[in-house]
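BUG: 3D viewer hangs when loading the predicted structure for this chain

Environment: internal workstation, default settings.
Expected: structure renders.
Actual: progress bar stalls at 90%.

Input used:
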Amino acid sequence: MGIDPGTNVMGYGIIKVVGNRAEMVAMGVIDLRKEGDMYLRLGKIFQRVTGIINSYLPDEVAIESPFFGKNVQSMLKLGRAQGVAMAAAINRSIPITEYAPLKIKMSITGNGSSSKEQVAFMLQNLLNINKEEMPKFLDATDALGAAYCHFLQITNPTSERNNPTIKKKSTKSASKSWEAFVNNNPDRVTK
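Structure tokens produced before the viewer hung:
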């Protein structure tokens, strides 16, 4: 299961792995725009993500990690939404893997600066999705992209997950400035 966290619209995507192929099972959004209270939105996220988990019984959850922007309040809200979605998975003892938006885009299109539309187009082709099945909100295809990126990571013998000899990059920064963080963590930041 893939999740694209959001406080207005949260995307989800479900894939099924058959042999060495992935198939789309479902994708959609949790529309939170009508709910004015932020805390009630968080409750709705927990309930809906739990319901989706109960319906599809995913083995793992891949979630897009928040990007680090300039608006701290937006980052906090997004982090809360992500945390609540993660809590729903944890509540069902489902392993969670986070992927930076850049990593997801690179996995799907080969270009970390791809647009949401390009990611959706590639997923449509990779997963043989009919044009009529493509969602109105690109948050759904972003979530499907997180799930597909995870599929690629678990099926790639040279990925960090499957090859302990590949040294993982440290995410710790010696400097406390945002500029240093961005420079030291290009795979975790979208520009």
